[in-house]
Structures are given as structure tokens and as C-alpha cells.
Specification:
The complex is a heterodimer of chains A (144) and B (477). Chain A is of the alpha/beta class. In chain A, 33% of the residues lie in helices and 22% in strands. Chain A has a single domain, classed as Rossmann fold (3-Layer(aba) Sandwich). In chain A, strands 2-1-3-5-4 form a 5-stranded mixed beta sheet, with helices on one face. In chain A, helix 1 links the parallel strand 1 and strand 2. Helices cover 40% and strands 18% of the residues of chain B. In chain B, strands 8-7-6-11 form a 4-stranded mixed beta sheet. A 3-stranded antiparallel beta sheet of chain B has the order 1-2-3. Chain B starts with a strand and ends with a strand. The C terminus of chain B is likely disordered. The chains are: A alpha/beta (144), B alpha+beta (477). At the A-B interface, strand 3 and helix 3 of A face helix 1, helix 4, helix 5 and helix 6 of B.
């Protein structure tokens, strides 16, 4: 059985910034067989866990997106300059490759439209609906 | 005409900031400022929430030191409930705080600062990061990741989640420690101890390698503020406040943290969202003080664990007879000493049978309308101050974070480094020099909080300012 890891991250006190976390929470509810993490931000020690997976899916708020968009991730020697306190998915994958010599066969990053970042524990209606669309995308990737 | 050099953003610190270095007509550094661009409003946001929610809410301020907010918020709640928490609960909170120190200090030393030291300030900036470090010494980098993981795993095993766990609550903690988890924690100890020793050995070589540069990294006298135990030992969870000066004189001692507002004020500058706390009797900005590892190791009389105490004695001798270390570069050394202490103390706590007790929470209603919580976060002393109504609804909250308390000193550090390394007459600012300025800031390991990472990619603002304060140019991107 494929080992799948879903990572949703963002700040749950800042409105739509939590879109990735909310999506990961729903995946955990609906697909208990999938390991789903809800995090404030991506941190270096995740590299070890990611290295042990067959598929990893990152879910994040995307201020520039108009609809959920998925990108296939690859490692790169020129991954964005890691600021380490908040690694990007690409930096984290590169860290897995360089430290543990292994990355998942499939790695995706899904951006969820986000526009409202005020102090709130609720998503905007647009973002909430995009979370639902995102769930369908994740399911699609996981059945490949 | 004067000109301003802007470094934006400052890399490898938590949050978003920029530095401006203003040159005078002669090309000499006239001023340098560390600006914080991100605005947080958590204090206002918490008004109207219940006291019992506060640990969970305030821990979401930050993805790096949530456990410190959890503990400090719960302590403010203890004060409002007017309860003494069970001994087991206090020891579990202490364990959580030490795990927080360990993971945060490991991140700061191994990942954020080591690339500068081990690859060199003048090395290729594209490679001067964690990936460059892996290429140079993969085992060193991997050990740093695992040390941080150890701290994170303790936090997760105690609270059930890595971050933002609402496990600490007013009156104690929610659940006792499972004995099986304690055994898992103990299994990590030998490896973690070895890694901390590796950090210390590496750092001592760095001190030799950069012996000529270190004197310019924030080397000036300030006050030092932090908690000490009632008999003057290094403290991280409770105790009293002590204030010492840069000549090792005790300015004030045995201050009840609940009275913090009588001793510390907060100044505001138009060019930064970060406030500038100061020691009131000395006024602003003369009341500049430093908090965090450098302050804690400077002000304490002793450290209760043997290996850390031996290192503290070496640390205290760095400045000869003065017996106090004023140079901010040695934040790194103090941080490593604290990692050693945290390791030793975690081991001691894990062998303490009280830790497995099942009485972990004192239950009470609202008994006071106001409460203050104080503990030592990795970056320094942290205060949470709440006012509540009879139902426990927050009417007003004030949080004084560690990074803000170092704000005046961080600005002074930037100015000192800039003045020493930048020669404006040559008109050339190398990447290595700029990175030294940034490295000066990284000594403090500031946590400006990326309260929303999507907003963190917001447009940036750059200003060019002349000697008269006029804006010569303004760029938004």
C-alpha cells in the first residue's frame, strides 16, 4: 500500500491563511487511511517523514490563485533560499533528498485561493468553496 | 548628499524585516535601523474571548515558540484563578518549556547561524544556507535536524500535537504523562547529548576562527533582564526578575514579575511596528536592555546541572575580570550552554517519579479580575497580562514578547557592525559585509512572527532618505 502524506499549513487565526489546514482537517476526517498533518508552517524535521513517503501533497493558501491549482514538485539544487523557519515545499523536498537521499515518487503542491487575512477563524466563502474543490483534486492525485 | 543602503528582506530570521543604513555626506555610517514591517494585533483580537481559550489562541501567534505562549498564558490564567497548580503539572510544564528551548535553539544554531560560520561570511550567498551546509557537512546538518526533532517530539508527546497544542490550561495541564512516552523520550537522550556537545565544540572553533571580527558584533554595555530562581540560579519557568548592568552590578533584584509594568515601559518609533521596551528608571532609550540566553547566563549565580555550570564558568571568564559578557556574538555560546542545560534537566525530570503523577490540574473559578504570567521563552522573558470580567471574558490583554525587548540593542548592533565594516567612500558594499550586518541581527534570533505566511509575501516598501530626513526615492514592489 502506498504511503501517502498530506500536509496542510497556515495560520488558523488569520482567515483564509488557514485554507490549507482546513483542507487537511477534512482529508483526515474523510480518509483516515491517509496521514494528514495540520501545521502552522513547514519545518526542517519534516524532511525525514517526507523521505519515507511514496506521495506527499502540500496544501497552502495562495493569494495569487483564482482557483485551486496543483503543481508537480521536484527537487532542485537551486531551491529557493531557505529561510528555514518557514521552508517552502520545494526546499523541504530538497532537504529530504540531500539529507536522506530519498524523496516521494510523487510530490504535489496545491494552492487554494485566499484573499482575506484579517483576524478571523473562518474562511471567506470563496476560499471555503475552493477547499472543497481542492479535496476533489487531492482524491484524484491519490488514486493515480 | 547622503544615501541609504537598504537590505530587504533580512534572511534567515523569523518574520519580515528590513535594515536601512544611512550614510552621511562623507560616506560614513550615520545611522542604521532594523525595521519590522509586519503588524500584529493579537492583543485586540483576544478581547471578548474566554480565559480558558487563551493558551490555544496565543500559541497561534507563532509557529516557532508556541509552547512558550502556552505556558505563559496558562500561568496568567493560574493567577486569575488564584490557584497553586499541582507539583506534577508544574514539572510537566517545565519539561515542555525545556523542550521548546531545545528545538528553538537547535534551529537557531544549526540552521540559521551555522552557514555563516562554517561556510564563511564571504562565501557564495547562494550556497550560504542549510543546503550549502549539507554539502559541506551533511552529518552536522542532519544532527541539527534530529536535535530539533527531539524537542518537537517531546512537545508532541506531551500535548498530542507538535504546535499550538492546548494542553497547558489555567490550573495545570489537561492530561498526565503516559509512562510509555516517558520511555520514548529517554531513548533520545544519549544522541541528543552528543549533538549538543558537538555544537559546543564547533562553536569554540568558530570563536577562534572569527576572533578578530567578534569584537564588533554588538559589543556594548546594556542592562540584562531575566528570571532567576529564588536563590539566583538559571530559571526558565518561574522565579523573580533580576536586572544587572554591563559591569555586573545588580540594579534590581527579586522583582515580582507581576509588577513588570512598574519597571518597564514601551516606546514607539514611527519607522517600526515593533515596540521598544526599556527600563523605566533609566528612561528611553538609555534604559536599553537585553533578554534571552546572553542575559540569562550573565545574570544567574549558577546553573543547577553540572555540565552547563562548567560551561557557564568558562563563559563568565570571557571578558576577564568584568565577569559579564557584553558582546552579542556570544548569544550563540549562551544558547549552546542553555541547550546543554535543557538536555541535562530534561533527563533529570524524566527520572523524577513526580512527573508521572495523575493529579495535574487545580480546578477553580474566576477569583481575580487580573493576572500576569511570566516565563523565559527561548528568546527571553515573556509576559502575558490579562484583565477579565466575572465570567472570565478577556477585557484587555497585553503581551510583551522577548524579541521586542531586544529591539533597542538590535538597532545598536546593526549600527556598530555597519560603522565598522562599511566604508561608504569606496561606494562598494559587498555581500559579505551586508551579511555581517544581518548576522548581527541573527545573534538575537529574533522572532517577528510570521502570523500569516501568505501575507508575508506582501509587497515591500523601500525608502531612500537624505541627511535632512527627506525621502529621495520610494519604491514599492
Amino acid at each position: 500500500m502506498k504511503k501517502v502524506l498530506v500536509i496542510g499549513y497556515g495560520n488558523t487565526l488569520r482567515g483564509d491563511d488557514a485554507a490549507g489546514v482546513r483542507a487537511a482537517e477534512l482529508i483526515a476526517e474523510r480518509h483516515p487511511e491517509i496521514e494528514s498533518l495540520c501545521l502552522h508552517q513547514l519545518m526542517p524535521e519534516l524532511a525525514e517523514q517526507i523521505a519515507e513517503c511514496d506521495t506527499v501533497v502540500f496544501l497552502d493558501a495562495d493569494v495569487n490563485a483564482t482557483q485551486p491549482n496543483a503543481r508537480l514538485l521536484t527537487t532542485s539544487d537551486s531551491a529557493d533560499q531557505p529561510r528555514t523557519h518557514f521552508l517552502s515545499p520545494k526546499s523541504l523536498l530538497t532537504l529530504s533528498q540531500q539529507l536522506y537521499r530519498r524523496v516521494p515518487a510523487q510530490s504535489y503542491s496545491i494552492g487554494i485561493p485566499a484573499s482575506s487575512f484579517g483576524f478571523s477563524e473562518h474562511l471567506s466563502s470563496r476560499s471555503a468553496s475552493a477547499v472543497q474543490e481542492c479535496l476533489a483534486m487531492v482524491k484524484n492525485y491519490l488514486t493515480r | 548628499m547622503s544615501k541609504t543602503i537598504t537590505i530587504l528582506p533580512v534572511t534567515r530570521i523569523e518574520g519580515h524585516a528590513k535594515i536601512t543604513i544611512q550614510l552621511d555626506d562623507n560616506g560614513d555610517v550615520m545611522d542604521a535601523r532594523f525595521h519590522v514591517n509586519e503588524f500584529r494585533g493579537f492583543e485586540k483580537f483576544t478581547e471578548g474571548r474566554l480565559l480558558w481559550e487563551m493558551p490555544g489562541i496565543t500559541s497561534r501567534i507563532c509557529g516557532i515558540c508556541p509552547a512558550s505562549h502556552l505556558v505563559t498564558s496558562a500561568k496568567a490564567g493560574d493567577d486569575i484563578l488564584a490557584v497553586e497548580i499541582p507539583e506534577t503539572a508544574e514539572k510537566l510544564r517545565r519539561l515542555l518549556t525545556l523542550a521548546q528551548w531545545l528545538q528553538s535553539h537547535a534551529l537557531s544554531f544549526f540552521h540559521l547561524s551555522s552557514p555563516d560560520f562554517l561556510l564563511g561570511f564571504d562565501s557564495d550567498p547562494v550556497k550560504r544556507n542549510i543546503f550549502g551546509l549539507i554539502a559541506a557537512d551533511a552529518e552536522f546538518a542532519k544532527r541539527g535536524v534530529r536535535l530539533r526533532k527531539f524537542g518537537q517530539e517531546i512537545i508532541e508527546m506531551l500535548g498530542g500535537r507538535r504546535i499550538h497544542t492546548p494542553w497547558t490550561v489555567p490550573g495545570g495541564v489537561r492530561d498526565p504523562l503516559d509512562p510509555g512516552k516517558k520511555e520514548l523520550m529517554l531513548q533520545w537522550i544519549p544522541e541528543a547529548k552528543e549533538t549538543v556537545q558537538l555544537a559546543l565544540d564547533t562553536l569554540k572553533k568558530i570563536h577562534v576562527k572569527y576572533s578578530k571580527e567578534i569584537p564588533e558584533f554588538g559589543n556594548f554595555r546594556t542592562l540584562f533582564v531575566g528570571l532567576v530562581s529564588k536563590d539566583g540560579g538559571l530559571e526558565y519557568y518561574d522565579g523573580v526578575l533580576r536586572i544587572k548592568d554591563g559591569n555586573d552590578n545588580t540594579i534590581a533584584d527579586k522583582i515580582d514579575p507581576k509588577t513588570y509594568a512598574e519597571h518597564f515601559g514601551e516606546a514607539v518609533e514611527s519607522w517600526s511596528y515593533l515596540k521598544f521596551p526599556y527600563y523605566k528608571p533609566f528612561d528611553y532609550p538609555r534604559g536599553m536592555y537585553r533578554v534571552g540566553p546572553l542575559a540569562r547566563v550573565n545574570i544567574c549565580n549558577y546553573i543547577e546541572t553540572p555540565l552547563a555550570e562548567a560551561e557557564r564558568k568558562i563563559f563568565k571568564s570571557l571578558n576577564g575580570a568584568v565577569n559579564v559578557v557584553n558582546n552579542s556574538f556570544y548569544y550563540h555560546y549562551a544558547r549552546c550552554i542553555e541547550m546543554l542545560f535543557a538536555m541535562e534537566k530534561i533527563e533529570m525530570l524524566l527520572h523524577d517519579p513526580v512527573l508521572l503523577g495523575d493529579n495535574v490540574r487545580s480546578l477553580a473559578s474566576i477569583n481575580r479580575s487580573e493576572g500576569v504570567g511570566c516565563s523565559e521563552a527561548p528568546r527571553g522573558v515573556l509576559f502575558h497580562h490579562y484583565h477579565v470580567n466575572k465570567d472570565g471574558v478577556i477585557q484587555k490583554a497585553n503581551l510583551i514578547i522577548a524579541t521586542a525587548q531586544n529591539n533597542i540593542a538590535m538597532n545598536r548592533t546593526v549600527r556598530q557592525i555597519a560603522a565598522h565594516f562599511i566604508d561608504g567612500k569606496k561606494g562598494k558594499i559587498t555581500e559579505g559585509i551586508l551579511n555581517r550586518v544581518e548576522a548581527g541581527i541573527r545573534c538575537y534570533d529574533p522572532c517577528l512572527s510570521c502570523s500569516t505566511h501568505a501575507l508575508g509575501r506582501m509587497p515591500l516598501h523601500i525608502e531612500l532618505i537624505n541627511a535632512e530626513g527627506e525621502i529621495l526615492d520610494e519604491v514599492r514592489r
